[in-house]
Amino acid sequence: MLQIDNLHAEIDGKPILKGLSLAVNAGEVHAIMGPNGAGKSTLGYVLGGRAAYEVTGGTVALDCADLLEMDAHERAAAGLFLGFQYPVEIPGVSNLQFLREALNSQRRARGQEPLSGAEFLKLARAQAAALGMDAEMLKRPVNVGFSGGEKKRNEMVQMGILNPRLAVLDETDSGLDIDALRIVGDGINRIMRAPDKAVVLITHYQRLLDYVRPDFVHVLADGRIIRSGGPELAHELEREGYGAIAA
User: Fold this and answer.
1) Which domain holds residue 222?
2) Torsion, CA 174, CA 179, CA 180, CA 184, rounded to 10
3) What are the angstrom distances between the C-alpha of 139 and each of 41, 144, 155, 161?
4) Residues of the chain whose pLDDT is less than 50?
5) How far apart are CA 57 and CA 185, in angstroms?
6) Given this model, what pLDDT does residue 247 score?
7) Beta bridge partners of 11
8) Based on the structure, what is the number of domains in the chain?
9) What is the CATH number of the domain that holds 17?
């Protein structure tokens, strides 16, 4: 599904990714772990198409299509969802308005009919209920006044509505208490655990992986993946830290 080969990227002339390669097949969950400054968030931004990040080498293919040649909205229509470590607030734009426009623009790009207001409202309420989110919060401006946990839960509602094929989730566990962590983990499993979908889960800590069990764990350091393994690798990192692995 996702094939990254020898990816190099920089921001403001500073190299961040320095030859990163990764293959993610449909039906798999891959966890990316590593120290601060390793390039984890940069990887997410590059895959999502954030303009400030310049790709200077390598290739990225999503379902055999050149991801790097697509604009950000085209990547979303192709089935990519990027979850942010710090979801942004959008004053004056309601969740419902934002999500309906996002979903219907993707449906139009795929040659599908847009959902009616009633159809979309039914879908949005169902996704909010599945995440334990009060449907009234859907009427509020996007993330405005939300706690950290509410923002992450709202992001899972967004992911459920958009129903992507590939989710790249950047530190989704950041700012979550124990209960919210379980709810978000259950949401990722419910929405994305399927034979035709895949997840790249960027995280510092093993705790989220108790709820979203990865097929593979990769250690990213200095812009490259330096080690890969199964779920046991996350436990090793928890015990020994990154220093022993990167040495």
Assistant:
1) 2-246
2) 100
3) 30, 11, 15, 15
4) none
5) 34
6) 55
7) 14
8) 1
9) 3.40.50.300
Amino acid 91 reads P
pTM equals 0.92
CB-CB contact of 206 with 181 (8 Å): no
Q: Which two tokens stand for residue 241?
A: 């830290």
Give the 3-state DSSP-derived string for the chain, with helices as H, strands as E and coil as C: CEEEEEEEEEECCEEEEEEEEEEECCCCEEEEECCCCCCHHHHHHHHHCCCCCEEEEEEEEECCEEHHHCCHHHHHHCCEEEECCCCCCEEEEEHHHHHHHHHHHHHHHCCCCCCCHHHHHHHHHHHHHHCCCCHHHHHCEECCCCCHHHHHHHHHHHHHHHCCCEEEEECCCCCCCHHHHHHHHHHHHHHHCCCCCEEEEECCCCHHHHCCCCCEEEEEECCEEEEEECCHHHHHHHHHHHHHHHC
